[in-house]
Amino acid sequence: MGKFKINGGKRLYGEVEVHGAKNSILPILAATILNEGISVIHNVPRLKDVEAMIEILEHIGCKVSFKGKDIVVDAKDVKDSEIPDHLMRTMRSSIFLLGALIARNKRAFISFPGGCDIGHRPIDLHLKGLKRLGVKIDESYGYIKCEGKKIKGSEIHLDLPSVGATENLMMASVLAEGITIIRNAAKEPEIEDLQNFLNAMGAKIKGAGTNTIVIEGVKKLNDVEYSIIPDRIVAGTYLCAAAMTRGEITVVRALKDHLEPLISKLKEMGCILKTGNDYVKINCDKRPKAVDMIVTQPYPGFPTDLQPQIVSALSIAEGTSIVTETIFDNRFKYTEELVRMGADIKVEGRVAVVKGVEKLMGAKVVAKDLRGGAALIIAGLGAEGTTVVEGAEHIDRGYENIEKALRGLGADIVRIM
Ligand code: UD1
Predict the structure, then answer these.
(1) pLDDT of residue 111
(2) Using a 6 Å cutoff on CB, does residue 169 contact ligand 1?
């Protein structure tokens, strides 16, 4: 809650550790209900979205304990198949309960999910895929009623590689009769993490991380203990913050393979990067250089979830950068706030032309979504004077105590009410 107050101009220096991946833990928490037993999950970040998912799990009958970085979900008594509208609206990831509930209870009754204000986010591909598995779907008045008495393995070709649809269909088909093949599947690392979690639970899934995933239905699953991967978007956010402040930092628990598309752009910007097994080190002692072209794409392309953060760093680069957003249709709103801080950014549809300025000036700005909010914090760290970023609740959806992590790197940032 509240806002962040940043006195900018401090060069970031030191070491920061990355917490567990938000986009892994959310589907994995939903997947815990597939087993009528216990799931123990480690490396869980304390995020608002995680709390929202726990609330949903408790509502349908799970017992959840969250101590330190460990969550234990007891899903023996999942009774309810209905998720009330106010819980569905708190975040878009509530949609993962659709696939999981159908597999567990053979039915689900939910409203359309809420989420970030970054554009139109339909769930048609989720529903189309579920129908291919034999689920009967009735949509009316903003509600979706699903009956899946007999879920049968099938071949599903996704019209586009949707992350959420791929994960939902994996969960829906784990306990199905026969084999399901998902083609044109999304290849994000978090999908592989879900596969590994489900397999540890006794599922038989192959191919996650490629565009074809094969799920052989099993009759029963077992108790599981699992540790989730580090958050590549959080790691990338710190790297962009270093580029903005001409900093020198080591991001620990960052998997370089997951960050390759960002690392190659930061190198183009003139930063020096070194990588090891579980760290990425960045040194940017000069003003960053502009990059000709960044185009967001499904993994392994440049991630849309790092687009605002790199634009923020490019706003003070030498030269003009062109950034194209192909995944979401309204993901440049935060640029209006950067312009208030002195940035020179023009947006035409899905393209942003970022003309680098010498420096940004502190201002009062408002975060309207999660990653756009992170971009404003980065801007505040580099700006001259004081920046106040309102809307901390959006940033808390995906970053655990971001102010503490940045203070550890020497930033002057506090949370105020
Ligand atoms: C996931 C991530 C989110 C990231 C996004 C793209 C989670 C919890 N969230 O979101 O952080 O920004 O991937 O990398 O993992 N689409 C349809 N119909 C559908 C589903 C999607 O048209 O049924 C479209 C969307 O409008 C969007 C594109 O497909 O334009 C990608 O969406 P998708 O990959 O599904 O993103 P999410 O799973 O919502």
Answers:
(1) 85
(2) no
